[in-house]
Amino acid sequence: MPFTLPTDIQNRPVAVIGAGTLGRRIALMFATRGGEVRIYDRSADAEEAAVAYVRENVAEVAATVEGGSPGRVVFTSDLAEALAGAWLVVEAIPERLDLKKEIFGQLDRAADADAILASNSSSYPTSQFIDRVEHPERVLNMHFYMPPKQNAIDIMSDGHTDRGIIDLLKRELPHYGVFPFEAHKESTGFIFNRVWAAIKRESLAVVAEGVSTPQDVDRMWQINMGTPAGPFRMMDQVGLDVVLDIEEHYAAERPGLPGGPRELLRKYVDAGHLGVKTGRGFYDDYTGGKK
Ligand code: NAD
Q1: What is the whole-number distance in angstroms between the Cα of residue 19 and the centre of ligand 1?
Q2: pLDDT value of position 290
Q3: What pLDDT is attached to residue 289?
Q4: Which of 11, 62, 201, 254 is most buried, judging by how many CB atoms fall within 10 Å of its CB?
């Protein structure tokens, strides 16, 4: 059956697959229009924290969304139950290609025929995991940053995505307080992640070359850009092992990137100083994982 765009979306649920760091935040945003959001995770342990997170925050976040009102969140560990009637399915399971391929095959078989199937993957274009999908025209990347604070989204075709889906999402997503930007070509890192990667890389290079210190770079950044945290503080928050993995991925795809930034990161990672999560990274003033 050929794919047709979903209709009556105001009265249909959104399903989020994966209840981790991002899944629960994505669910929160889709719960800001008074409708139902279903969170599916194969681990029932994920339920309590994810549902509590959405319930605790939904009233406050819905109040920031024009025309918003708190919706309902439901957890299930039954995939068919999560998908029934959903107009949009957003996958946010771990960043492993084998898992992504498997789940997209399942979603394509089990979701309603007109459901849009989106992936929150940070680094894989969806063109890489549609080999078990019969309807690649309904699949695309929809990459969130860190809602409800960082609400820009990259959207990107898998090479076959129905143009109507991209237009529909550009029109509808702002109603949920998130703002889509289309990558017009396939791009590892989409749009903003690439810009941010360049900032991180050059900040690291300045320190690796002995030109400056993490503290001074951050302070200059704060003064000139007017933001509360600079690049080094932000890298500590993400985790220096994760920052290194991301940079390795870019370096593998684009030979010629300078090695100094990765060498500096490796020193910290090898010493076990991964940032906030280990209590020490470029900074050592983290207490109770709060900073
Ligand atoms: P996470 O590890 O916090 O959560 C993943 C969840 O998926 C876990 O609750 C796990 O139980 C569940 N899960 C694993 N396999 C599953 C399956 N087959 N079916 C259903 N649930 C399954 O991961 P995360 O940090 O939320 O990342 C999820 C995705 O979002 C990744 O693709 C990542 O690249 C992307 N992403 C992460 C961030 C971030 O800052 N963490 C930002 C943007 C995008």
Answers
A1: 7
A2: 42
A3: 46
A4: 62
State the Cα–Cα distance between residues 190 and 188, nearest whole angstrom: 5
pLDDT score of 3: 93
Domains, the chain, ranges and CATH? 9-183 (3.40.50.720), 192-278 (1.10.1040.10)
What amino acid is encoded at 91 in this protein? E
Place of tokens 């550009």: 170
Q: Quick one: the chain helix, strand, coil %, rounded to 5?
A: 45, 15, 40
Task: Express each pLDDT in 77-119 by its tens digit.
Answer: 999 999 999 999 999 999 899 999 999 999 999 999 999 999 9
- What's the CA gap between 205 and 283, in Å, rounded? 17
- Indicate which atom in ligand 1 lies nearest the CA of residue 119: 32
DSSP β-bridge partners for residue 89: 15, 117
Of all protein residues, the one whose alpha carbon is nearest to atom 30 of ligand 1 is 92
pLDDT score, position 141? 98
Those residues of the chain that have pLDDT short of 70 are 288-291
Q: Which atom, in ligand 1's list, is nearest to the CA of 100?
A: 18
- Structure-token pair, residue 63: 């109040």
Measured in degrees and rounded to the nearest 5, phi and psi for residue 179 equal -125, 105
Which amino acids bring their CB within 6 angstroms of ligand 1?
Answer: 17-23, 40-43, 46, 92-95, 99, 103, 120-122, 144
Q: Cα 35 to chain center, whole Å?
A: 22
| Model confidence, pTM | 0.91
| C-alpha 164 – ligand 1 centre gap (Å) | 27
Could you tell me the CA-to-CA distances from 231 to 56, 153, 205 in Å, in that order? Answer: 30, 20, 12
